[in-house]
């Protein structure tokens, strides 16, 4: 398992997207709640999975903008 470098961006209270390679597939991983997305051939799609998960992550802390 190889962890890829997370992208920079997003609110400080939200963990940046993390993509791990497992064999021929990449998986989005949430370091906050332990969620792991489905295996994808495209890292870009895995990052999209991660961003979508961040909206509903049970461990997510609301940002100052959400009030």
Give a verbal description of the structure.
The chain has one helix at 43-54, and strands at residues 2-3, 18-22, 25-29. With 67 residues, the chain is of the alpha+beta class. It has a domain at 2-6 and 14-54. It is elongated, with a radius of gyration of 12 Å. Residues 45-54 have a biased composition (Basic and acidic residues). Residues 36-67 are annotated as: Disordered.
Short key terms for the protein model shown above:
67 residues, alpha+beta, three-stranded antiparallel beta sheet, 1 helix, 18% helix, elongated
Helical fraction? 10-25%
> Whole-Å distance between the termini?
38 Å
Say how many strands there are: 3
Strand content: 15-25%
The secondary structure category is alpha+beta
Outline type: elongated
Question: What gyration radius follows from the Cα positions, in whole Å?
Answer: 12 Å
Question: Strand-and-helix sequence, N→C?
Answer: EEEH
Order of the strands making up the biggest sheet: 1-2-3
- Which parts are unreliable, with pLDDT below 50 for 5 consecutive residues or more? 1-12
Indicate the mean pLDDT.
78
* Biggest sheet layout: 3 strands, antiparallel
**Number of helical segments with 4 or more residues:** 1
């Amino acid at each position: 398992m190889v962890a890829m470098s997370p992208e920079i961006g997003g609110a400080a209270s939200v963990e940046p997207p993390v993509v791990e390679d497992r064999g021929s597939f990449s998986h989005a991983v949430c370091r906050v709640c332990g969620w792991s997305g489905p295996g994808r051939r495209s890292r870009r799609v895995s990052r999209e999975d991660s961003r979508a998960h961040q909206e509903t992550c049970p461990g997510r802390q609301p940002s100052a903008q959400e009030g």
